[in-house]
Amino acid sequence: MAISPHRFTGEAEAGLLRARLAEPFELAALAAAFHVSGRTMPRRLKSETGQTPLGYLQGERINMAKRLLESGGFTVAQATGRVGYLDVATFSTLFRRLAGQSPAQYRSSFHSRVQPCYLPDHVAI
């Protein structure tokens, strides 16, 4: 049995959302990519993943932001822009709701400003 090239699964949609994390969310464009209506696409994704397209995208954006903040190479503002948000306050509110702490608190739990250096007593300086 041949499968239509327009058939999709929740994972295919999720993959497309992940590939476009930093791009503005447009339900109509996402639905058009799978040749379905703007009402059908969210229903199918929710039935297969348990999440709405926007909810899934927000979760993936926060997961990517966590990885950026853990790396230490990004400020909160830089991570905000890299995952598709223009406003740090909006991003921080969503981050706090999904991660349970602010982005700054999350980042500092991986990278404190002062790294203590402990030397054994027998090492001469």
Provide a quick synopsis of the model:
Helices cover 57% and strands 0% of the residues.
Largest sheet, in brief, is: none
β-sheet strand percentage = under 5%
Radius of gyration: 20 Å
Output the structural class: mainly alpha
Mean pLDDT: 81
Count of DSSP E strands?
Answer: 0
Order of helices and strands: HHHHHHH
Shape: elongated
The number of helical segments is 7
Unreliable spans: 1-7
Helix content: 55-70%
Oligomer class: single chain
Distance between the termini: 75 Å
What does this structure look like?
There is one protein chain. With about 120 residues, this protein is mainly α. It has helices at about 10-20, 25-35, 40-50, 55-70, 75-80, 90-100, 105-110. It starts with 9 loop residues before the first helix and ends in a 17-residue tail after the last helix.
Topology overview:
Blueprint: H1 10-19, H2 27-33, H3 40-49, H4 53-71, H5 76-82, H6 88-99, H7 103-108
Keywords for this entry:
125 residues; mainly alpha; elongated; disordered N terminus
